[in-house]
Design a protein that fits this description.
The complex is a heterodimer of chains A (about 170) and B (about 775). Chain A has about 170 residues and is an alpha+beta fold. Chain A has five helices and five strands, in the order ββαβββαααα. The chains are: A alpha+beta (about 170), B alpha+beta (about 775). Chain A: InterPro entries: 2Fe-2S-bd (IPR002888), 2Fe-2S-bd_dom_sf (IPR036884), 2Fe-2S_ferredoxin-like_sf (IPR036010), 2Fe-2S_ferredoxin-type (IPR001041), 2Fe2S_fd_BS (IPR006058), Beta-grasp_dom_sf (IPR012675), Diverse_Oxidoreductases (IPR051452).
Chain lengths: ~170, ~775
């Protein structure tokens, strides 16, 4: 089948998609966007987390056809121009990246969290990221990264709204 | 790297972040990783590539009567179906013992053994073709009990020479010594999986010279190349390997997985072939941590001084040897823990069975006995009415002390200090009558308790681990360092085959080059087989040996520069050094810019680093003047809350003191301790591959659980630096110890809360609510 949907704000089309393929497969193998990772293919590890119409979802559990006409956001869309986005920057600075295979999914999940909750408590962070497995870090530096990202997001919002008010 | 490199093959890491030895610069691959642009092995892509797949045995033990590939080969979209008769070279490989077929011939020895290969135009086509391969099996009764495999001579021999892979006794002092206070126990450990997130993957590209270029994720390129070339019947120089991004390893990538299979399919079809395991296949396609059965007896004086330790350890190696010989070596030599004991008798057995093959995993062979000897130390403290930490400190090994093999520790061994420090770290607050957040209780958001039936416990664990390979191995490393002027600035490029598996070796290599050469810009060349061997990224050894090789190569480059300047300026070379991109004299100050000294030259030097020599163990007594290069130590304290009615455990806090010799990158050291501790916590309370009659019952992340961010508590981490005079910069291996001492600490804390014996790890709810007192 032919599939068309929006990825990171860009209209994309894929031809000859077999009906059994997942959104993850189409992103990785047909659209040249391998940032989202395949680590379990059953929605347990969160490495393939993407936005689907603004809501985080495991791309491995979404049949390709279900994405037709919808908006998909991946890790490749988190950068701000040539620079890193605040969440990406926080993960690097906090040392929350080791092998990095879980990182793309964690970044999307964190981006969603700090967009929804300006000042998440530790318990909220843990609950929000409980669907993203990491085998390298023991999660402590991921906690640091999310706190840092939340602070930065909140202060940039504050300065933005400050400018608007002025 | 070849000129026909596939898309997303690795490039130089040129993100040079300021910081030398002892600082904590961020990773040079960090930006690529958070952009989703870091090229992992599973991301590789080549024009016109095929997908490879592996048909695996559904039986733990069976004779193969026949294989019919006809229907599979006739499937549209299928380019090749290969069996053992297509293996071009030697159809056997192995890390220590060459005993494992590339593809099974007339017998399969485990559930999951590779039998046939398919290459097709789509992964689904390959899967469907595999279903059409008809294998006629005669199912045999599997051997699944390693203790029986050791002693029951009526069992069939799974390999020529019998079912014992290695038997090693260690005897010190009087093996029959007696003591006033005696405690004994039988301890068992389940099979743990490395559970790296990036599954096995690679892309093989057939080369015009009849060889193959393989892009892959591994821990040791040269070990892979040697085994792969042998199996392909090619000279090693025609098997070129390049490291792609590795999604974690933890020992699970030491043995071959896709290497020969992928190359065979590429050479046979003349097309690039990609293989990627899914999670279930990954569970069947790599080795696991050896399950163990361990009989222990400790004798002590009434004052608490250890008089003797006697132990017998059985390690289940499964169907093929892999690293079983080393597991037996480590398990026995380190089998009494970091304690000074005058009389020791340990017997270690590594066995062949029809269970899944077991091999390397972080803490290799030292994890298993730590659970037993630390349980024994607690039991001893209990019998003596002493504090468990005091008993440990009283018997702690120290510098100048002797191991059971007779090796004198000629470097710091601050075991007592680590125990004392870890117990002084701050404790978490006690629960009030109404805890603030139900998510902090056992069972969490499942709402299984509001505090009723919840008991807190505290436990300790301390461990010893050898660093680098042992028993006579010369596991050296090689580094090539090139210095030239690019855009008016000095640029160093470091090239090694040392696998970056997530641990941050790329960062440490940059730090060493910056410090040794006094330059800012340092690029890391991709790991490949164009440079000499680095050995495996295992045994906590890469900062030690590859760090040493990078240092040596930098020193050689520096010598060339300084000789040039000394000749020109007439100053003594001993007065010269490199700093801030300049040659500086301690007598007369800045002599020259590197840009002027180097000009258009390229200064390139390649050097090896060999650690000091080790020697084999005596086969009867286990004695050796120096069996191991270095030992590392860590101590953990665990605080747990246990719902004693439901058997649910919440680890509230996990603290660690560790000696790292020299913290080359302090933040990366902390990251290793946190990550290692999490894997140890997982082993303590949740991680076990369930094997039933030789078959894995939980080959998925739905059924094999690893800790989530909800399971991992905050940690206090206390790093001390007692330099080892024998190692580069005084470093001591960091990665493994925290995986070892965390598990017994958590189990001890659960014992303290429940009063239950808990002789099996991981501890399951049914063990806690079972009516078995300590």
């Amino acid at each position: 089948m032919r599939l068309s949907f929006t990825v990171n704000g860009r209209q994309c089309e894929a031809d000859d998609v077999w009906e059994g393929e997942s959104l993850l497969y189409v992103l990785r193998e047909r659209l040249g966007l391998p940032g989202s990772k395949n680590a379990c293919e059953q929605g347990e590890c969160g490495s393939c987390t993407v936005y689907l119409d603004g809501v985080p979802a495991c791309a491995c559990l979404v049949a390709a056809g279900q994405a037709a006409g919808r908006e998909v956001g991946t890790v490749e869309g988190l950068a701000e121009g040539d620079g890193l986005g605040a969440v990406q920057e926080s993960f690097v600075e906090a040392g929350a990246v080791q092998c990095g295979f879980c990182t793309p999914g964690l970044l999307v999940a964190t981006d969603d969290l700090v967009n929804r909750v300006p000042h998440p408590s530790d318990a909220e962070i843990r609950e929000s990221l409980a669907g993203n497995l990491c085998r390298c870090t023991g999660y402590e530096k991921i906690m640091d990264a999310v706190r840092l990202a939340a602070d930065r997001r909140a202060s940039s919002e504050a300065s933005r709204s400050g400018k608007t008010d002025a | 790297m070849s000129d026909h490199a596939p898309a997303r093959s690795p490039q130089d890491l040129d993100d040079s972040i300021a910081g030398g030895i002892g600082e904590s610069p961020t990773r040079p691959d960090g930006a690529l990783k958070v952009r989703g642009e870091y090229a992992y092995a599973s991301d590789l892509w080549a024009e016109d590539m095929l997908w490879g797949a592996t048909l695996r045995s559904p039986h733990p033990y069976a004779r193969i009567r026949s294989i019919d590939i006809g229907p599979a080969l006739a499937t549209p979209g299928v380019y090749a179906v290969l069996t053992h008769s297509d293996v071009p070279g030697e159809n056997l490989y192995g890390l220590k013992i060459v005993d494992q077929p590339v593809l099974a011939v007339d017998v399969v020895r485990y559930r999951g053994e590779a039998v046939a290969l398919v290459a097709a135009d789509h992964p689904e086509t390959a899967r469907r073709a595999m279903e059409r391969i008809e294998v006629d099996y005669e199912v045999l009764e599997p051997i699944t009990d390693p203790e029986l495999a050791a002693h029951d001579t009526t069992l069939p021999e799974l390999h020529p020479g019998g079912n014992v892979v290695r038997h090693q006794p260690i005897v010190k002092g009087d093996p029959e010594a007696s003591a006033d206070v005696v405690v004994s126990g039988l301890y068992t450990l389940g099979m743990q999986d490395q559970a790296f997130l990036g599954p096995e993957a690679g892309l093989a590209v057939p080369a015009p010279d009849g060889g193959v270029d393989l892009y892959l994720a591994t821990q040791d390129l040269h070990s892979d190349r040697k085994q792969t070339a042998q199996a392909l019947g090619l000279p090693p120089e025609k098997v070129r390997m390049t490291m792609s991004g590795v999604g974690g390893a933890f020992g699970g990538r030491e043995d071959l997985s896709i290497q020969v299979h992928c190359s065979m399919l590429a050479l046979h079809t003349g097309k690039p072939v990609k293989m990627v395991y899914d999670r279930e296949e990954s569970f069947h396609g790599h080795v696991h941590r050896h399950p163990a059965k361990m009989y222990y007896e400790h004798g002590a004086t009434r004052d608490g001084d250890l008089v003797y330790v006697r132990a017998t350890l059985y390690f289940d190696g499964g169907a093929y040897a892999s690293k079983t010989p080393v597991v037996v070596g480590n398990g026995t030599t380190l089998g009494i823990g970091p304690y000074a004991v005058p009389n020791v008798r340990i017997e270690g057995w590594g066995l062949y069975t029809n269970n899944p093959p077991c091999g390397a995993m972080r803490g290799l062979g030292a994890v298993q006995p730590a659970l037993a000897y630390e349980a024994q130390m607690d039991k001893l403290a209990d019998a003596l009415g002493m504090d468990p930490v005091e008993v440990r400190i009283r018997n702690a090994l120290s510098q100048g002390g002797t191991t059971p093999t007779g090796q004198v520790l000629d470097y710091p061994a601050p075991v007592a200090e680590l125990l004392d420090r870890v117990r002084r770290l701050p404790l978490p607050a006690e629960h009030d009558s109404a805890p603030a957040d139900i998510r902090d209780l056992p069972g969490g958001a499942s709402n299984t308790t509001h505090g009723e039936g919840v008991v807190r416990g505290i436990g300790y664990g301390v461990c010893i681990k050898n660093i680098c390979y042992a028993e006579g191995a010369d596991d050296y490393s090689t580094a090539r360092v090139r210095l030239q002027i690019i855009g008016g600035e000095p640029l160093a490029v470091v090239h090694t085959a040392a696998a970056e598996v997530g641990q941050g070796l790329v960062t440490v290599q940059q730090q060493i080059a910056r410090t040794e050469l006094g330059v800012e810009r340092v690029n890391i060349h991709p790991n490949d087989t164009d440079v000499g061997p680095a050995g495996s990224s295992s045994a906590s050894r890469q900062t030690y040996v590859t760090g040493g090789a990078v240092r040596n190569a930098c020193e050689a480059v520096r010598d060339v520069l300084l000789q040039r300047v000394a000749a020109r300026s007439g100053e003594s070379i001993g007065d010269l050094s490199l700093s801030g991109g300049k040659v500086v004299s301690s007598a007369t100050g800045v002599l020259a810019d590197l840009a002027d000294v180097i000009g258009d030259d390229v200064i390139e030097e390649t050097r090896e680093y060999h650690h000091r020599e080790t020697y084999p163990l005596d086969e009867e007594l286990g004695t050796s003047e120096r069996a191991q290069v270095q030992h590392a130590f860590s101590a953990h304290r665990a605080v747990v809350d246990v719902d004693t009615e439901l058997g649910l455990v919440k680890v509230v806090q996990l603290d660690c003191s560790q000696d790292v010799g020299k913290a080359m990158n302090p933040e990366a050291v902390i990251g290793q301790i946190q990550g290692g501790s999490a894997q140890g916590l997982g082993l303590a309370v949740m991680e076990e591959i369930r094997v039933d009659g030789g078959t894995i019952r939980n080959a998925s992340f739905t059924d094999y659980l690893i800790p989530t961010i909800l399971d991992m508590p905050p940690m206090n981490i206390d790093v001390i630096e007692r330099a080892d005079p024998n190692s580069p910069y005084g470093v001591r291996g960091v990665g493994e110890p925290p995986t070892i001492s965390s598990t017994p600490a958590v189990v001890a804390a659960i014992r303290a809360a429940t009063g239950k014996a808990l002789t099996h790890t991981p501890v399951a709810p049914e063990h806690i609510i079972a009516d078995i007192p300590r």
